[in-house]
Structure formats: structure tokens, C-alpha cells
Specification:
This protein has helices spanning about 35-45, 50-70, 75-90, 95-115, 130-165, 190-200, 220-230, 240-245, 275-280, 315; strands spanning about 10, 15-20, 30, 175, 205-210, 235, 255, 260, 265-270, 285-290, 295, 320, 320-325, 335-340, 345, 350-354. The protein has 2 domains: about 10-150, Four Helix Bundle (Hemerythrin (Met), subunit A) (Up-down Bundle); about 155-354, Rossmann fold, CATH 3.40.50.10470. It has about 350 residues and is α/β, with parallel strands linked by helices. The strands form 4 sheets. Strands 6-5-4-7-10-15-16 form a 7-stranded mixed β-sheet, sandwiched between helices. The protein has a 4-stranded mixed β-sheet with strand order 11-8-9-14, covered by helices on one side. It has a 3-stranded antiparallel β-sheet with strand order 1-2-3, with helices on one face. It is globular. The structure holds 5-S-methyl-1-O-phosphono-5-thio-D-ribulose.
């Protein structure tokens, strides 16, 4: 399945990230030539969405090595470790970020272990050739993380569609979704939005209700934009309208993505997701999460242990640089945690957890 819109353009010496802050008005790219640039782009939400920030961070690790190499400086494990730390700190909740940088560091680690000078080889491998081989290994790993995500999206979306049409058969569905989980947030067709795309391909979508998703408006600026571009029926709804839409029986199922899934199945996702799950339960509407295995964090026992990112007050006090509220204190948790008891099923590329 074709995805029209990609969040990233890659080259040997840079990546260009589609500035998602300017969508849908402007298609503008921010160029990153090292890991620090990528960390800043992630922090500033130029790129967002758990898989997309993981992919960007993987290229960021490679670019740091590339830049050092170009300056004839040695690429060491220590430099890459520091780069990983900086990237991981850019957005703490989405585990895909640390998952990707860990893979990149392991690739470097394996390389250094392989290429370490032996008593016979001396320091011969530590020069330009070694740098080049390391760069190639890192680039290939970043590319693999990127390309694999497209396959994962397709597999998890297929799992979701199969489940929905089997367990909740209907000619056409009205789906409510939150935030943006499409090709702007992943390396492929998306997670929750991927399932929606496949449903549409099968002629099974009546309407997608896209929550506008305050404060950053991923729903109105990004999801509505993606769906309209692909001619999938979409209706924009303010976040606070979800309960009423459910009460009016306008919603058949809720589909969302995830930023971190604890070992017990609790899910951290965009602020507002937990509320939707409570409403869905109260109205007996199935509530589905679609996410790759890279979003599962088995080191975290349950949702209470998930670190939820708090973001700047400006995101709430202003819209597109325009002040919309007096200067009062603001609470701005970027994510919330949905208990597994509110979730009907979680679909990954490997399985379906009920
Ligand atoms: O703050 P964001 O835009 O990065 O939040 C994104 C979400 O919460 C998505 O639902 C999640 O990352 C899954 S994206 C496939």
C-alpha cells in the first residue's frame, strides 16, 4: 500500500525532517546534520510520533558518526553513548526512541568488539577504513529500523482489521481516533491510522472522527490532513465532544496508537486517550490500541512507573504563536496512561493481546 506523505528524507550526510509544526499550511523541511540537530527537532516537535522519533534518532546516531568522520575525528563508543543520552532525553515517554538508539549503540558495540586491535593487527584497523566500515554499519542499521517499521505497520494493521471484522462484524464502521498515528508518525502507513487505511481499502469505513487533540492539534493539523489527502472520509471533532458522539451511537470503535506499553498492558498515549477509554467502556464501545513491539517496555511492570512528559505552558497559552489565554499556571502532561482493563485488544505486528 502506497503512503503519500513521509516525515523524512534521507541522504548520506543529512536527514530532512518535515516540519510538522507548520502543517497543514506549509510543507517545509528542517535539515539535520548530526545527532544534536535531531535531538532538538524531536524536542521541538518538528518530528513527533513514537516510531518516527525512533527512526529519526537512529539516523541522528549515524549522522554524529558521519560528521566526526568528515572532520577526520575518531568515532568512539563514548561519543555515541553521550549522543544516545542526549537523544533519549529529548522526549522521555515514547520508548521507541531509546529502543532505536539502543540498537544503534549495540551495532557500534558489536563493531568495536569485532574490529578491536589484536596483538597481531596492532592499530591498523583504527584509521579511516575502520571509520568507514562503522559508518556503513550504522547507516545500514538506521535504514533497517526505518524500513522494518513500514512492514510492521502493515502487519499490525492487518491484525487489527482481521480482529475487528471478525469480532464486530458490520458493513461499514464509524471510527474515532486520537492524535496522529499515520505516515507522519511512522515509517509506513501508520499504526491506528494504518488499520483505518486498510479498512478504507476494503470499503469498510463510513466515517473517521478525528479528535482535534489539544494542545498541539495533531488531529486537526495532521490526521485530518492525511486522511483528506487520501480521500478517506474524515470529520473533525473537538476532544470534549467524544462522550456525546458515543451517546448518540455515532462511534463503533476507538483506535489509538501508543508511546509505551508496560508489561501488564497499561498504555501511555497522547493526553486524552485515558478519558476516551473510560467513555468507550461506559458506552460498551470496543477500544483498540495498535503499536509495534518496539513500543512495548517489559522492564516496566505497570503504567504507574511510566514517566509522563510534561511540556511547556506556551503550548496551551498560545496557538500558532498567538496568545489565547491570560498568563496563569498551566498543567500540560503530554501523555496519560490507560489501564489495560479499559482496552479491548492491543495489536502488534506479531500478535493480538486481549
Ligand atoms: O506528542 P506526539 O505527537 O509525539 O504524540 C504521539 C502519540 O501520542 C501517538 O499516538 C503515538 O506516538 C503513536 S504514533 C504511531
Amino acid at each position: 500500500m502506497k503512503t503519500n506523505l513521509s516525515f523524512i528524507k534521507t541522504a548520506r550526510d543529512k536527514i530532512q525532517l518535515l516540519n510538522q509544526k507548520l502543517l497543514p499550511h506549509k510543507l517545509d523541511y528542517v535539515t539535520c546534520t548530526n545527532g544534536n540537530d535531531v535531538a532538538k527537532a524531536i524536542k521541538d516537535m518538528i518530528v513527533r510520533g513514537a516510531p518516527a522519533i525512533g527512526i529519526s534518532a537512529a539516523y541522528g546516531m549515524y549522522l554524529t558518526a558521519w560528521e566526526l568522520s568528515k572532520k577526520n575525528k575518531k568515532v568512539t563508543l563514548d561519543v555515541l553513548k553521550k549522543q544516545k543520552q542526549l537523544l533519549d532525553a529529548a522526549r522521555p515517554t515514547a520508548v521507541n526512541l531509546a529502543w532505536a538508539t539502543t540498537q544503534m549503540l549495540s551495532t557500534a558495540n558489536a563493531f568495536f568488539a569485532r574490529e578491536a586491535p589484536t596483538p597481531t593487527s596492532g592499530r591498523a584497523n583504527q584509521g579511516k577504513d575502520a571509520n568507514l566500515k562503522l559508518l556503513l554499519a550504522l547507516y545500514e542499521k538506521a535504514l533497517e529500523i526505518h524500513n522494518d517499521d513500514a512492514e510492521r505497520c502493515l502487519a499490525m494493521s492487518n491484525n487489527a482489521v482481521k480482529y475487528l471484522v471478525t469480532k464486530y462484524p458490520k458493513e461499514k464502521y464509524n471510527i474515532l481516533t486520537h492524535c496522529n498515528t499515520g505516515s507522519l508518525a511512522t515509517g509506513g502507513i501508520g499504526t491506528a491510522l494504518g488499520a483505518i487505511r486498510l479498512l478504507h481499502e476494503k470499503g469498510k469505513i463510513n466515517m473517521v472522527y478525528a479528535d482535534e487533540t489539544r494542545p498541539y492539534l495533531q488531529g486537526s493539523r495532521l490526521t485530518a490532513f492525511e486522511l483528506q489527502k487520501e480521500k478517506i472520509p474524515v470529520t473533525l471533532t473537538v476532544d470534549s465532544q467524544a462522550a456525546y458522539l458515543m451517546q448518540k451511537k455515532l462511534i463503533d470503535a476507538v483506535f489509538v496508537g501508543a508511546d509505551r506499553i508496560a508489561a501488564n498492558g497499561d498504555v501511555a498515549n497522547k493526553i486524552g486517550t485515558y478519558g476516551l477509554s473510560v467513555l468507550a467502556k461506559a458506552h460498551r464501545i470496543p477500544f483498540f490500541v495498535v503499536a509495534p513491539k518496539s513500543t512495548f517496555d517489559n522492564s516496566i511492570e505497570n503504567g504507574d512507573k511510566i514517566v509522563v512528559e510534561e511540556r511547556s505552558a506556551t503550548e496551551v497559552l498560545e496557538i500558532a504563536g498567538r496568545v489565547i489565554a491570560p498568563k496563569v499556571p498551566v498543567v500540560n502532561y503530554s501523555f496519560d496512561v490507560t489501564p489495560q482493563s479499559n482496552i479491548t485488544a492491543i495489536f502488534s505486528e506479531e500478535d493480538t493481546l486481549e
